[in-house]
Amino acid sequence: MDRTEAVQKIVTVFRQWGYEGTTLSLISEATGLGKASLYHHFPNGKQEMAKAVLEYAGQWFAENILAPLRGEGTPAERIALMNDRLSQFYDCGRSACLLAIFTLGEPDSLFQEQVHQMLDAWINSLTVLLVETGIPEQAARQRAEDAVIQVQGALVLTRGLNSTEPFERVLQQLPVKLLEPITRSEQF
After folding, report:
1. What does the CA dihedral 20, 26, 32, 34 come to, rounded to 10 degrees?
2. What pLDDT, on a 0 to 100 scale, did the predictor assign at position 108?
3. C-beta of residue 130 within 8 angstroms of C-beta of residue 144
4. What is the pLDDT of residue 54?
5. How many angstroms separate the CA atoms of 120 and 108, rounded?
6. In this structure, are residues 19 and 104 in contact, taking their beta carbons and an 8 Å threshold?
7. Do residues 97 and 155 make contact, with C-beta atoms less than 8 angstroms apart?
8. What distances in angstroms separate CA 8 from CA 31, 66, 111, 113, one per listed residue?
9. Long-range contacts of 68-73 (CB under 8 A, 24+ apart)
């Protein structure tokens, strides 16, 4: 198994157990690699594995979320594509958000910059798309931030209620909320 394959399997361990709950034994079990092989691929241990997981997630996000938002098609089509990919990445809300996992406890100080960059890139890409539709930049930024809040909140609710409905509902409503005409209060 190469490093990329190992990282893909390690993602599920961090999603299930969080950073602090993830052990080398759990990672070894998920990957089928012994501890010596894990240290061969990741000499700095769990912290390096977590960094690799965030890099993997960041690359996936850049290719599957950010690129389509900046790509071709109408704004509604690009948002719909983002939603489809979010649903895929989060298994319709059943999978925990890696960004949230790496902001709790010790990982926050270790990975805060990476998490910040990923969230900021997502918000910025949505903001640019909304500005293209004629929404003023400040209102577009607020809508983009609100969209990310709604997605992240829906992930928590979906897992807590053991129902994908909140996540599905948020993704269904997101294009309308993002693209609706600006209100008077947003003009100022």
Report:
1. 80
2. 67
3. yes
4. 93
5. 16
6. yes
7. yes
8. 9, 20, 18, 22
9. 69/125, 69/126, 69/128, 69/129, 70/125, 70/128, 70/129
